[in-house]
Amino acid sequence: MPYQFTVSPDFGPNQLAGWHIFNTWLQRQLDTDIHFETYDSFEAQRQAIDEDNVDIIYANPYDASFLVREKGFVAAATPQKPDETTIAVLVDSPVQEIEALTPGSKIAQTNDPDISMMGMLMLEPANLNAGNTTAIHQDSYIQVAKALIQGKADIGFFLSEAFDELSSLVKSQLRPLVSSDIQIVSHALLIGPKLADRKEELTNKLTSMDADPQDKSLLQSLGFEKWAPMDEDEMEFMIDLIEALAA
User: Fold this and answer.
1) Distance in angstroms (rounded) separating the CA atoms of residues 147 and 127
2) How far is CA 152 from the centre of its chain?
3) C-alpha closest to that of 63 among 144, 143, 135, 7
């Protein structure tokens, strides 16, 4: 049976081909069969994780807690590209600051847990919470943008990178209201117990990718400049921070 590799469903659609190529790179570097599987939702991916059907995952920070503390995964590397959240409105919205938002606001968002959590924290200056707002769940950040443009929502939560990657036509109709700047929360490549003994080997191969022109091009197709090692203490600190923010 091949090992199973997947990536957090919040990756951009223009990166899918890059992840397929990265899976081929992984197989070549580890000299083993690895099957690349994508999931349409965070719920479907978490079910696969819960059923032990994932061995390697490019995971979002929120899911890292469950993967590391409940499933025995360890971090092989991080792209050192922080996950930030952007709250956006229509370009002609009268709302110019968070404090101007009112109870009853409709929020377009995906099921990306860390972005939803950060977005709600960023609404606290307006005294908004899950009890006095309405969440309108969308399958992708493109759909979040469409919900705003079509007037179905007052504000939208975006992974900042996903907002930046929207087409110029779509972005011209939206306006960022505020963006987070935490800097220390990021996705990471995690490996499960079946591959734990190859962590050091994989970390070394990942962190040397940027030294090879062809591998560097692959990294850029994923939106990365380079991988960096991520030790246990760094991962635990990030998990503790996420859990503290969620409390």
Assistant:
1) 23
2) 24
3) 7
C-alpha span between 209 and 149 (Å, rounded): 40
Q: Is the pLDDT of residue 91 over 80?
A: yes
Q: Which amino acid is at 139?
A: D
Give the pair of three-digit tokens for residue 100.
Answer: 């101007």
Token pair 């999931």 is at which residue?
Answer: 39
Residue that has been written with the tokens 């970390």 in this structure: 203
Considering only CA atoms, which of 7, 13, 45 is closest in space to residue 189? 7
| DSSP label of 223 | T
Shared domain check, 76 and 188 = yes
Give pLDDT, residue 183: 77
130 and 51 belong to one structural domain: no
User: What is the domain range of residue 132?
Assistant: 85-179
pTM: 0.82
Residue 155 φ/ψ, nearest 5 degrees:
-140, 160
